[in-house]
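[User] Could I get a sequence and structure tokens?

[Assistant]
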Amino acid sequence: MAQEPKLPIRLGFIGLSATGWAATALAPPLFEDSLSSKYSLVAVSTSKQESAETSAAKYSELPSKATGTSVVVKPYHGSAKHIASERDLDMIAVSVKVLDHKEVASEVIEAGKDLFIEWPAGRHVKETKELYEAAKLKGIKSLLGFQSRFTTYALKAKEIVDSGDLGEILSSTFIISITSFWGHFMPSNYRYTLSSSNGATLLDIPGGHALDLFTHILGPISSLSAVIKNQISSTTLLDSDGNPTEEVVPNDTPNQVCVMGSLASGALFTVHLQAPAKEADFNWIIQGEKGVLRIVDDSDRTTKQGFFDATPNVYLNGEKVAIPTDDATKQTGRNWEAFADGNVSKYADLEQALKLKEILQAIVRSSEDGRRVDLQ
């Protein structure tokens, strides 16, 4: 039985502005009834004083209204050292660009605070390994922002697979097509994703999220062969209104990733990631000796981007399985809850992040060397 963290967990947040992903999906669940007794937001930190004060004011008002008592969230700005040195914190969430993951998270770990960090938890395997080893040395707990494993379709799929209703898993095919990003056009503020050295490619970001989901449900990969290819060597940047600019930049990142191999269970698998596609696709088939599970987004594919906004249906042996409606705040809320409750089998930590980075590294190595890579 896992030991539950002391509650409420006093939380700090680096990169929590008044708007953005952290503001719309990561922070809101913390103020809902199910989590408000398990977490207490104490401090926020952004790059500039003005944005830090605006954020602190917003997140002081939210819990004050929810609890009926005055709550004051402290603002920090600049170096992560400032908020990391705050004694009234048990845990600090890091939601910044991957370029800054290693530097910022290292300050949190050095201060002895538990850590939430977004995937990919550093650029490439070296930085992730350094964060994992530092956290292990300090004896701190970590939580990764893998919200996809907490979607209602993923929870139902894992329940079905674990129940044995499919029998022995024989094979699995997973296809993801993304309509935007890593293509002919890219918003200017995401230009860093067009350089493989920054660790934010199609394989690194959606590929990492997808493979976490895949292995969380079906178990570890034992060997793989892969082909990755860049078919778009230059990309036109878009302005803030989404209009093409005259700036064209080199793009050395893959837009096609094809992986096949064996799972530790003995099942065979294929995973195909591609961008950009004319239509989004999310199609996952899990074939067992007793039945088949299909997880497929049947909605209008022209209105979606791909993996992160997929709302797939679940079909067991051709029959649609009822699952509750879902959204990003519910998914991230379940992740926060699993950590607070000490359910270590449900959430991912830096150790699992490192294992996943090793899979990504093996995919690249297999494609470069033209050979199968064994992982176990």
Notes: The chain has a mean pLDDT of 94. The chain has ten helices and 18 strands. The first strand starts at residue 9 and ends at 14. The chain has two domains: 9-140, 148-337+345-374.
